[in-house]
Amino acid sequence: MRNHWRRVAAGLILFGISFGYVEAAVVIYLRTIYDPIRRRVHPGIRPGDLFPLISPGQLSAAAPDKDPLLAVEVLREGATLIMLAALAFVVTGGRNLWLPAFAVAFGTWDLFFYVFLKLLIDWPASLFTWDVLFLIPVPWAAPVLAPVIVSLSIITTGLVALRRAVVMRPLHWAAVTLGCLLILMSFMLDFRNTMAGGLPHPFAWWIFASGELLGIGGFAHAHKNS
């Protein structure tokens, strides 16, 4: 049983690391396409700054031939989630370990995405550099430190749950779900401003921290009592 757990964990982590490199490579290609357009729309931006964003209207006016790429990118992000979910399903056989396996793969992928971006193009400049995290259903934005914390949290809890069954009661699920919603809220809170071309407002660290504490607390209590 222990060897099986190690094989599953190693496979998920290796996949996540490799997929993180693929994601970093895709982002480098996208920046090569979009950075010249951003410099035309927002002259004077510093290299490596992702904000202000290009609004869909600005993109259409500045480079109408690149307009379809936005939809392609949104669909690519959806396909990425399906790939990670499919991997977790295959590895666990669709049993109740599917979610921990998905957490390990997702967290490793996201963490090593930043590792490889730093190695390849020396970005981000620091853990407090702002990034666009996701586009579904609206743009998510946060300092890089926030998704790194989430990745480390879900990798750790996922590995723990894969190693030993954790019985989640309704109260535990409520805490974890509410924690996730608070974290997502902190990421999407400012989307109207960033979509309109504004610079991000100060990140809602208190909402993010509340979500982290609720989620980890609920899982830790379930693990202790399993």
What is shown here, in short?
With 226 residues, the protein is mostly helical.
Structural class: mainly alpha
Any idea what the radius of gyration is? 19 Å
Strand content: under 5%
- Overall shape: globular
Helix and strand run: HHHHEEHHHH
Distance between the termini: 18 Å
Let me know the average pLDDT. Answer: 92
Instruction: Identify low-pLDDT runs.
Output: none
Helix content: over 70%
Total individual domains: 1
Assembly annotation: single chain
Query: What is the number of helical segments per DSSP (H or I, 4+ residues)?
Result: 8
Number of distinct beta strands: 2
Largest sheet: 2 strands, antiparallel
- The side-by-side strand order for the widest beta sheet comes to 1-2
SSE diagram, text form:
Blueprint: H1 2-41, H2 56-62, H3 68-92, H4 98-121, E1 130-134, E2 140-143, H5 145-163, H6 170-188, H7 191-195, H8 205-224
Antiparallel strand pairs: 1-2
Helix pairs in contact: 1-4, 3-4, 4-5, 5-8, 6-8
Question: What keyword list fits this structure?
Answer:
226 residues; mainly alpha; 8 helices; 2 strands; 4% strand
Can you tell me about this structure?
The protein has 226 residues and is mostly helical. The chain has one domain (2-163). The protein is built from eight helices and two strands, in the order H-H-H-H-E-E-H-H-H-H. The chain has a two-stranded antiparallel sheet with strand order 1-2. The protein is globular. The two termini are 18 Å apart.
